[in-house]
Amino acid sequence: MKCGKLKRNFWLSAEIECMLSLIKELRAEQTRSTTTTHYTFTQIANKMKKRGFPNKSPTQIRRKWFQMKSAYLCYKKGNVERLFLIPEKFRSDIAQFVEDGNKIGRPRQQPQQSGDYKKVNTPMDNFVNQLNHNNTLLIEDFNSLQESLMHYEHKCQSLRDYNIIKYIST
């Protein structure tokens, strides 16, 4: 029987999370630079099966990885819409992988500098910082509006109480 084209598959958050954690594990374990990408994705697929995600082939995992990586790289070049191909929960992980500049299946290189390492903000860091800032402003506005509403509610209750007392006393 001829092997046909793979069906389009949808990824659950748990599957993506498992895939990324396995990529992190493999990057930490690997010491040789001769590891092939195909072998690496086969390892990830086998480990995902052991963890309860049997429906992902090495090809599907490879495609998902490169799709998310490509989306992040396009985002860095100014195509903000592509960022939405990466679930929000995993954007910082993908950014970290890409910004490290290391490929899956290759050993991690240690930084040359010691002590003087200065963190450089990536576009994803800037985006997240702006979101946090906007969130803070929204929370402040919400709290201010909530306080005004409570003040208005107290005034209304005072007027109701006054009218009830006036009605009862007459």
Describe the structure.
Pfam families: Myb_DNA-bind_4. InterPro entries: Myb_DNA-bind_4. Residues 8-82 form the Myb/SANT-like DNA-binding domain. There is one protein chain. This protein is an all-alpha fold and 170 residues long. The chain has 2 domains: 13-107, no CATH class; 121-170. 63% of the residues lie in helices and 0% in strands. It is built from 5 helices and no strands. Helix 1 packs across helix 2 (37-50). It is elongated and about 90 Å long. Mean pLDDT is 80; it is low at 110-115.
Which structural class best describes the helix and strand composition?
mainly alpha
| Principal-axis shape | elongated
What's the total helix number? 5
Tally of DSSP β-strands: 0
Rg, nearest Å: 27 Å
| Percent helix | 55-70%
Query: Overall pLDDT, averaged?
Result: 80
The helix/strand order is: HHHHH
Number of structural domains: 2
Low-confidence stretches: 110-115
End-to-end distance: 95 Å
Largest sheet: none
